[in-house]
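Sat 14:20. Reprocessing the chain from the morning session after the first attempt stalled halfway. Input below, unchanged.
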Amino acid sequence: METSQQRLALQDAMVFLGAIASGTEQAIGESANSISYLAGVNLGKKMSAGVSQTGDILQALESTREVLKNNDYLWLFEPFKTHDQETLVLEGEEGTQVMLVFRDCMIRQSLYRFGHAQKGSLCNMMYGFFAGALQNIMGRESSLEIAHAGENACYKKLIVRRAS
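Finished this time. Tokens:
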């Protein structure tokens, strides 16, 4: 099957998921975000089981990208640095930080096709996925925070907490 046909088939399925997310958010409110986050953590841990561990955040992101690709997930992201940053990786009070751009996100595209707002339960599932995968790959807690959610790309801050 051609790649564009595969993408359309995936997006049709994701529109269904967008409808479920919308209904769940309406029915149970803010709890939908927590439930989706935990589902994402479990998915991230399951899919990254057996991946080699590393303490290098850029290598961990490459491993996460491979996990997604190997499981046919279209969450294409890349580390990004602004013109005033010297390096991709920054050390902050909270831990190691990297800004990520998601230019081709199946969740964002699905939400737009369904007509549902971003920053809800499906986005929280993505944050959970990263937290679970990075827990396996780096052995550390992490969070993914929205800096900007747009129709063409999302800009997010990944913070990997210091080892305890």
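The chain has one domain: 3-161.
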